[in-house]
Design brief:
heterodimer, A: alpha+beta, 3 helices, 6 strands, 21% helix, B: alpha/beta, 6 helices, 9 strands
């Protein structure tokens, strides 16, 4: 009985750590959250609905988003290369930008989703009825992104 | 003044114990400032639970919606609560021509690197020399219907602001940090500008 209790206690202590030890994720660092690889189906179609948009919560009138113009090809590259950021770490570690673009994407497997990407390479993908996936693309070093 | 245990944990009846070693990083030197955050989460329980994960980030204190204060990390250890620094001289309109030239190309990474080469108070306090205080507060509306950059952080409650004012008073006195070196998170790094906007101390 004592052995069983010790085993249960040991599992309770270890569980929170083992539960997040995902094999396809990086460890992260002071300025980059853990990034997890993701399987991306072939992209059939990208629609850009908002481009060079400025967030309504940005009160600094000097912030100009007119240069953040994405193309369909850039969005395709971003969605292919971006990594998934596990929940809870994106908010504190990744930079926020007022400049963003958004739209929809259709995959060759028939799925569709809403996408969003900011000038500082943070984005999201939302499939119907599913939680938002936060994305970050450290290798997307091309204009109009900034890093 | 608040009593600080040799392990860096402050001792006061108003402060509850909830140390989360997983968010503690390198040794903290002299404390140069205090940064006020909002968690983006709805409850203290969810934040305290997330602080147990090996790759998690957090701050030294967490203040719940009802004003309850939790000490979550040792004051002798850094926590990764700040992120990349913004150029302080730009915010305070006192950049030299050389600094302005180096900042003319927008690169948050280079900007942060340049800032880290400066001593405080020429730069904002960083992970290496600041205490972080998290206020439980969501970015609204909930869910994925609105992208993160359009969300607004909920107002800090009166109880949270009363506790924040007390805690900052105690910490600034104990750690000899000037009140003008207490900042909201979006002042020092690139974060949603509504985070902690309604925090008062």
């Amino acid at each position: 009985m004592v052995r069983l209790l010790l085993l249960v206690a040991a599992f309770a202590i270890a569980a929170p750590y083992s539960a997040i030890a995902k094999p396809n994720c990086t460890q992260g660092s002071e300025f980059e959250p853990p990034l997890c690889s993701r399987k991306v189906p072939a992209i059939a179609r990208v629609v850009i609905e908002a481009n060079a948009a400025k967030s309504s919560v940005e009160t600094d009138a000097s912030v100009d988003c007119s240069a953040f113009v994405v193309t369909e090809a850039l969005v395709r590259r971003y969605l292919r290369r971006a990594k998934r950021v596990p929940g809870g770490t994106a908010h504190s570690m990744l930079d926020w930008s007022a400049c963003h673009a958004s739209g929809t994407v259709e995959f060759s497997n028939g799925q569709s989703a809403k996408w969003n990407v900011s000038q500082l390479r943070v984005g999201s993908l939302v499939f119907d009825g599913q939680p938002e996936q936060t994305l970050f693309c450290p290798t997307c070093r091309e204009q109009p992104f900034a890093w | 003044m608040i009593a600080v245990h040799t392990a860096g944990m402050c001792i006061n009846p108003r402060v509850r114990r909830a140390r989360r070693p997983a968010i503690e990083r390198g040794a903290m030197g002299a404390v140069a400032g205090i940064i006020v955050h909002q968690t983006g989460a709805a409850t203290s329980q969810s934040s305290l639970a997330s602080y147990q994960r090996a790759s998690s980030t957090g701050a030294h204190f967490l203040i719940d919606r009802d004003g309850a204060i939790y000490r979550t990390a040792s004051l002798h250890r850094q926590t990764w609560h700040v992120g990349r620094l913004r150029a302080r001289c730009l915010m305070e309109h006192r950049c030299t021509p050389v600094e302005l030239k180096s900042l003319s190309v927008f690169s948050p990474r280079l900007e942060d690197k340049q800032e880290r080469s400066k001593p405080t108070p020429d730069r904002f306090p960083s992970n290496q020399d600041s205490i972080g205080i998290e206020l439980v507060g969501e970015a609204l509306p909930r869910g994925a219907s609105v992208p993160d950059e359009q969300k607004t952080y909920q107002l800090v409650s009166d109880e949270q602001n009363a506790s924040l004012k007390w805690l900052i008073g105690e910490l600034t006195a104990t750690l000899a940090v000037p009140l003008h070196e207490v900042f909201r998170h979006p002042d020092v790094s690139r974060k949603n500008p509504t985070e902690a906007r309604s925090a008062r101390w």
